[in-house]
Structures are given as C-alpha cells and as structure tokens.
Fold this sequence. Notes:
By secondary structure, the protein is an alpha+beta fold. 19% of the residues lie in helices and 34% in strands. The chain contains 7 helices and 10 strands. Strands 1-3-4-5-2-7-10-9-8-6 form a 10-stranded antiparallel β-sheet. It is globular, with a radius of gyration of 18 Å.
Amino acid sequence: MPIDAAKAVAAEPRTGEIAWNHKDVQLYHLGLGAGIPATDPDELRYTLESRLHVLPSFATVAGAGSPGVISGLSMPGVDVDLARVLHGGQTVRLHRPIPAEGTATATGRIAAVYDKGKAAILVMRTEVADAEGPLWTNDAQIFVRGEGGWGGDRGPSTRLEAPTGPPDRTVERPIREDQALLYRLSGDWNPLHADPEFAKLAGFDRPILHGLCTYGMTLKAVVDTLLGGDVARVRSYTTRFAGVVFPGETLRIRMWRRDGGVRVAVSAVERDDAPVLADTVVDHT
C-alpha cells in the first residue's frame, strides 16, 4: 500500500524558513481577482503597497506554500500518484494579523491519516511562527483516490447542518479564463490547473481552478461584504471542497450571519448552482 499511516504520522516534522514581501501579497490578491475597479479605494488596500492589508488566506501560499502540500506528499510513509490527489478541505487559524512583509519558520507534518474506504485523507498541518511568536496554523485535508480500505480510522465528520433561512447576502464573482494561470504563480504548480493533457489523465475535460483560489475569492467576498473590509477581524476560516470550478465560470457566494461568524455556501452559476464550497465557516471578532 503506498500510504503507511503509522509511518506517515510518526515521521519527523519538516521545518524550513519562509519569507514574503509586498509583491507576493499583491500577486496573490491579483490571482483572486482583486483590483477591479483598479482605482476603487476598497480594492487598493489589496493592490497598492502603501496601504496594503493581507487577506488571511494568504497563509496558504506564503513562502510559496512551503512546506506545502506537494512536499507533504513525499513525506515518509506516503507515495501517491499526483493525478489521484484532490484537495478535500482547508482550515486556516490566525494567531495575529499577517504582516505585508516577513520571515518565519514553517513546521509541517502529517497530523492524521484517515481511511474513507475508496480513498485516504491526509491531514497536513503547517504551523508558522516568527520572532514575535505564532502567526498561523494551516490544516490541509488531502483526498487521495484509491488509497483507502486498509481498515483504519475513518476520522471525524466535517459535515455541518445546512444554513436555514434566506442568506443575508449573496454576491457573484466572475472567474477569468486566465485566473488559474495567474493564481499558480503564487506557488501551486500542479499541472492539473494548466495542462489540458494532465487534466484529462485526472478525469477532467480541461484544467480546473485551484480550490484554494476559490477559497481565497470567497474569503475576500465575506471580508468586503460583511466585515467592513477589515481583514484583522478574521480568526479562522474553514471549508470543504465540494466540487470543481472551471475558469470562465461565475461563483455564487451566499452568506448567513451567525454569532461570531459567517456561514457560507458557494456554487457555480453556469452549472445550475453545482456546489463548490460547503461546510464553510468564517469565525471573526
């Protein structure tokens, strides 16, 4: 079996130094569709270095995502075919606002391996701290098709009850044809998002958008719409990737206010509101 769960969880963490600057932050924001309209003051806080605020989901790509999902797939006990890999879910917990420039130490490990029968789920945890202390913790849930069935722990359910009542806000966000090509410059070089031939090997008729791009676009919509544009209010952000998105489509983002948080559901408009993000929660002050 390509995944040895006990060996993977017991493996020594990987630690590396990461660094980022305002250009990395600006490129990430542009990859999410920020800057439209280009002179809008609300957009300039994402694109102009003199007034830059860092969207908390930048934590998923800071330092080019190092140690990152791809490096995690080469950890001891893990040997999988990249074409069978999908990003199943993501959680970012913020310990304090992310600075526009910084250096930090990132420590990555496989926190858990779950057996879902026809697939395995790897939980890759990355903890990041700088000289002043902890900055953020990332948990990436990686779905590996065909690698389950060894009788291991199925893990906790991440499913939430669907929000009730009409959403408090609904917005739509178009995805440009070149969105994945721009977003991948922030560090996720998986050819699934650019190479038509590789996408076909993975079972898709054309390249798909990065799940983390949809993740970032959604958080930006929540911050801009319900949090007054204040990125520092976000405390944690979690989602389950429920379906793919293709460049050129439109995201429909529905938001429900809750005490201390926002429930969110995201769908693809052109495919009869096919679910894209589910079980999505933004906790905030």
